[in-house]
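Have a close read of this protein, sequence plus structure tokens, and explain what the tokens say about the fold. Thanks in advance:
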Amino acid sequence: MHIDQLERKWAGISLGIAGLFVVLILISALFHGINAPSHVETIDSARLHLSEEFAEDKLGPELNPDGSLTVRVVAGRYGFYPKTMTLPAETNITFRWVSLDVLHGVHIPMTNMSTMIVPGYVAEVNTVLHHTGDYPLLCNEYCGMGHAHMWANIKVVSKDQWLEMYNKGEANHG
């Protein structure tokens, strides 16, 4: 079998470019901490309200001993619950999302926060909100007729202001 020298040259260039892209993707993933999910956590969506972690009085932000936050949010039938939340800026925040019914997506514009919320699974995203202000929380996966009305609001305040609110019990559910 004979391969023309010009074809061999262009095949080599093409494979070289593809290899370069693979190397760049791997380097980028290592430096930015991007990896495939390794810990898949399941939950019974039909019994969500009976669960210890996602009971109605446990939703919203919870201050951890190390100063970070865990925020539990439920997505379902055209809303995120709690509907409004106040969160501190410059704080490590772990969002834990679950769905009551169908596939939802969540996106906070102007941040790196975006994920899919699959029924029966817990979606976990770690982020830091750097700028104070109001942020909409939007569903970015079509979930039914009321999809356009599926939103919530996050108000980001300074860390000191949030701690003061939290200690007074004003930051727990918005």
Remarks:
- The chain is about 20% helix and 30% strand.
- The first strand starts at residue 60 and ends at 63.
